[in-house]
Amino acid sequence: MKEKITIVLKKELREVFRDKKSLAMMLAVPLLIPFLIIGISALFDSEINISSDDFNKIGFTYEFTPVEENIAKYYNVDYKIASLKEIKKLYKSEKIDLYITKDNDTYQINYDENNEKSAQTVYLAEKFLEAYKTYKQEEYLQENNIDSNKALNIINITYNTINDKKKNFYVNYTTSYAFLFVIMAITVSATYPATDTTAGEKERGTLETLLTFPIKSKDIILGKFLSVSLSSIITGLLGFTLSLVALFYSNKWFSIYKDINILPSVQTIIITIAIIILYSFLISGLCIAIASKAKSFKEAQSALTPLTFICFFPGMIASMVDLKTTSLIALIPFLNHTQIFNDVNSGNINILHITLMFISTIIFVSLVLAYIIKAYKSEKVLFSD
Amino acid sequence: MIKVNNLKKEFERTKKSRKKEKFYAVNNISLSAKEGQIIGILGPNGAGKTTLLRIIGGIMEPTSGEVLYDNMNFTNNEIEIKKEIAYLSGNTKIYQSITPYELMDMCLSFYEFPKEERKKIILKISKILEINNFLYNRISKLSTGQVQRVNLARCLVHNPKYYILDEATSGLDIISSQIILKFIKEERDKGKTILYSTHYMEEAENICDYVYLISEGKIIMNGTPKEIKEKTKTTNLRDSFFKIIGGNV
């Protein structure tokens, strides 16, 4: 029995690897993953490391004291002092990003929240005014013979990072999306060979030929299932390897990952590989089950299109709403794979959840296979005429 | 010996009014085929020939009735029976991305031939069916006639006892048809049992030892070509057929 399955498997793999379209489907999405990781990292990096020179042009409608002048120099404020009318003109002509007006002791920051430059410059304006306020407070306290240091620092605030996993928001975001793309790559990769080996083979008339051989339909199904799964696993592992390479270089290139080990641990890599294999089995089985009902290649492709989205969205939505993994979630296919990956990637290894995901996937794969084996006894599935 | 007893196959079809109705594509057919015989299964399109041969070939299950190969049935001996069958039809196509050599090698693997023996068999069959010139070319590059010869080659690599040939020469050029017909006769002479369905009445008359005429899933007449002609008082099988069913073949 095993030999017959191997013959079908070899035959199917030969067809996949000799077909340019199948190969393209296997490689297209994984090859995009490094660009995605580097792209997301570069975007974050550019947002974080915005040059202060870009958002420092502030107009003032009052004359500076020498202290204000020093503070402006200290914070690198590129200031313009003029009348309100002149300042408004400068703002309109985008020579300044915002302007500050003064009415006795009330200072007003005038800015446009819908203008990115103006909104960003508010932080600098606040820092400038806070520094001047502190100076004035110290001056007042000293005039009244009060220890300004004690009064102003009546409580001390210190910061200590408690993120012992040395990960940050950017790392989690980038790796989650990279994994979602690996999932997408596996799904796309399973779709084409699953369509070709079922509806395609039926349409071409080669399925009828296969049925004439001394082999049980169960063995044909298992051979086909293993070949589609193997193609998907290859795609998944390729996508994952390329992700690791892209993460390695992103770690070196971008300052958002400074002092952080962005690369996953060996434990995370092993569990991720196991998730990739499990997911490949599940999606391959589902693709074969759906495609085998179609009479033609085209019909099968149309039927499989929704599955590509269905398998991608649970993970995406889970990432967006910051879903916490429960035992129930660990049992739900598609959702459990991305959730467990996200947990493991953030250092939360829950053996119960991982075990439940394994059991759930194995049960679903077995049910899908039992369904396909039963379906392959029906004339509607076997013959296109 | 192949023995077919009271075979029935029910299908569902949609009528013009979109209502579904059940019908028998094969309706209570019984026949037998002995060693060293070419049995012709003749009938117009939609008569049920392909369904009948699919059931006899074990790739479709009957609604009722049974097919026996030397008193063995598919329910209990599917693999043993299939090892002795060569099934070739207009619907059985072959893989385009592989070479005839790879195809035959794969087939022989299914029939559990050892690797050393497989090469010898492939070279022998290639010579018989004149496919050695394109043995290592991809099947997608071959002509229709060459493909059908490769298809026949993949059927007989395992030296089967029974041949089920459904429209085996349909759409082929004269040379390819002649190679196939010559081969069928030689196999008959070796004592093999051959079930042969065709549209070509002259061809059937020429090679069949016994003929079953089928219409609407039922056998309407059977006998040797000579007996049928005598019964219908005609000079050839084509006229006999017209006389019995009164339609186009």
Explain what this protein looks like in three dimensions.
The complex is a heterodimer of chains A (385) and B (249). Chain A folds into two domains: 7-46 and 167-382, no CATH class; 52-152, D-Maltodextrin-Binding Protein, domain 2. Helix content of chain A is 69%, strand content 5%. Chain A has helices spanning 2-18, 20-48, 66-74, 84-92, 116-143, 148-152, 169-204, 206-211, 217-253, 266-291, 297-321, 335-345, 351-375, 379-382; strands at residues 57-60, 78-81, 98-103, 106-110. Chain A has a four-stranded mixed β-sheet, with helices on both faces. The longest helix of chain A has 37 residues, at 217-253. Chain B is 38% helix and 26% strand. In chain B, helix 3 (100-110) packs parallel to helix 5 (144-156). Chain B has helices at residues 49-56, 74-82, 100-110, 115-128, 144-156, 174-189, 201-207, 225-232, 237-245; strands spanning 2-14, 20-33, 38-42, 64-69, 85-89, 162-166, 193-197, 210-215, 218-223. Chain B has a six-stranded mixed β-sheet, with helices on both faces. Chain B has a three-stranded antiparallel β-sheet with strand order 2-1-4. Chain B has a domain at 85-160: Helicase, Ruva Protein, domain 3 (Orthogonal Bundle), CATH 1.10.8. The A-B interface holds A 3-4, 7, 10-11, 14-15, 18-19, 204-206, 208-209, 211-216, 377, 379, 382-383, 385 and B 11, 57-61, 78-80, 82-83, 85-87, 89, 91-98, 102, 106-107, 109-112, 154-155.
Keywords:
A: 385 residues; mainly alpha; 14 helices; elongated; B: alpha/beta; Helicase, Ruva Protein, domain 3; three-stranded antiparallel beta sheet; 9 strands
Biggest sheet strand order of chain B reads 5-6-7-3-8-9
Give the uncertain stretches of chain A in residue-range form.
Answer: none
Oligomer: heterodimer
Arithmetic mean of pLDDT of chain B:
88
Judged by helices, strands and strand pairing, the structural class of chain B is alpha/beta
Which bin fits the share of residues in helices of chain A? 55-70%
By CATH, the topology of the domain at 85-160 in chain B is Helicase, Ruva Protein, domain 3
- Describe the largest sheet of chain B: 6 strands, mixed
